[in-house]
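Below is a filled-in request sheet from our internal design queue. Each sheet records the structural input a requester submitted and the sequence that came back. We keep these sheets so that new team members can see what a complete request looks like end to end.

REQUESTER: design group, bay 2
PRIORITY: normal
MODE: inverse folding
CHAIN LENGTH: 353
BACKBONE (tokenized):
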């Protein structure tokens, strides 16, 4: 955990200069009290593009070389690489005492996840996972309305992410992976389910591949039974054709014993009470100046997550999506693939048991 002085500007490095990392870099430049002083990427062309775009002088194609050159000066690293690199980069950063933010999924297996979490704990280094969906303003307002008890005790929920948006154009590797929608997108939606309803006792899952030109599944439907008695449906699709595509929004329904919540596509949160009345709240995000349609809900959430991470470092508290918490989201992904393969109900692993 960080013990930084309140007035100190935290110095960090961004490792990975790919498609999504541009959002992270722009968000860092919007925040006070933090500065990205170095960039690292194995691809010289990507590195040169980010250097020109963001005006960062120190660039490296090797992370070990970067840490050696900047020894003792980096307060944190933001690891925005693909999952395979995390098993090397997280221990490297931990050895150098840098606080860590790691892109999701932060490990390729639960065994690796446990090892990375324990290593960071042994080194006294904070490990935060860049899980931004729960920081979208509309979703955050829905979570807070539920937690405040406005509809009483929830018993049913549905989180739906259905779109036909061409995600492969900007991220062509997504068409090649064997595990696609659950691991890339469903992990976010499952984390929303945990934020809303708590831990999951058991789950079932069915998957489909509609697009014949990809390797992995592009449709997944899960049913979750949460510890507190909520039954939730999580459904994800990149094969849904709609005239008014909601990308990249997650739509939410929650039924409670004293009312219901509905997060609609128009960024309206409906609060239905037991007397049949409906209060409507505008939960539209306030996008940063650099955001662009249709990405602005995601880009706003990147800024919100990084602002909270920065505050956590200042105050010496844990970030919400720390490694040991996010382990339980990663475990739901693992359980979903096992359930889909066996067509059986699966009990997910859980941190600490």
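RETURNED SEQUENCE:
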């Amino acid at each position: 955990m960080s013990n930084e002085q309140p007035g100190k500007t935290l110095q960090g490095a961004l490792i990975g200069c790919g498609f999504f990392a541009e959002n992270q870099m722009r968000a860092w430049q919007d925040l006070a009290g933090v500065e990205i002083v170095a960039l690292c990427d194995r691809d010289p062309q990507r590195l040169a593009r980010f250097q020109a775009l963001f005006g960062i002088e120190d660039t490296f194609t090797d992370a070990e070389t970067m840490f050696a050159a900047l020894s003792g000066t980096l307060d944190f690293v933001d690891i925005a690489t693909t999952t395979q690199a995390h098993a090397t980069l997280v221990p490297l950063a931990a050895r150098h005492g840098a606080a860590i933010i790691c892109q999701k999924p932060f490990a390729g297996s639960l065994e690796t996840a446990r090892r990375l979490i324990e290593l960071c704990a042994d080194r006294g280094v904070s490990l935060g996972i860049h899980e931004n969906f729960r920081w979208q303003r509309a979703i955050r307002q829905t979570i807070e309305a539920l937690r405040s008890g406005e509809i009483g005790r929830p018993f049913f929920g549905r989180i739906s992410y259905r779109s036909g948006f061409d995600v492969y154009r900007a991220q062509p590797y997504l068409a090649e992976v064997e595990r696609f929608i659950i691991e890339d997108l469903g992990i976010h939606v499952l984390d929303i389910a945990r934020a809303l309803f708590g831990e999951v006792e058991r789950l079932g899952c069915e998957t489909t591949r509609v697009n014949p030109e990809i390797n992995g599944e592009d449709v997944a439907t899960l049913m979750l039974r949460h510890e507190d008695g909520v039954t939730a449906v999580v459904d994800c699709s990149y094969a849904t054709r709609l005239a008014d595509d909601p990308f990249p929004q997650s739509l939410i329904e929650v039924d409670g014993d004293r009312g219901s919540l509905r997060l609609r596509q128009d960024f309206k949160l409906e609060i239905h009470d037991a007397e049949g009345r409906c209060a409507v709240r505008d939960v539209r995000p306030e996008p940063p100046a650099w955001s662009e349609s249709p990405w602005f809900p995601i880009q706003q959430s990147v800024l919100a997550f990084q602002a909270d991470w920065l505050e956590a470092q200042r105050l010496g508290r844990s970030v919400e999506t720390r490694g040991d918490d996010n382990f339980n989201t990663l475990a739901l992904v693992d359980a979903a693939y096992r359930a889909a393969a066996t067509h059986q109900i699966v009990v997910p692993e859980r941190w600490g048991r």
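SHEET NOTES:
- The radius of gyration is 20 Å.
- DSSP finds nine helices and 14 strands in the chain.
FILED BY: M.R.
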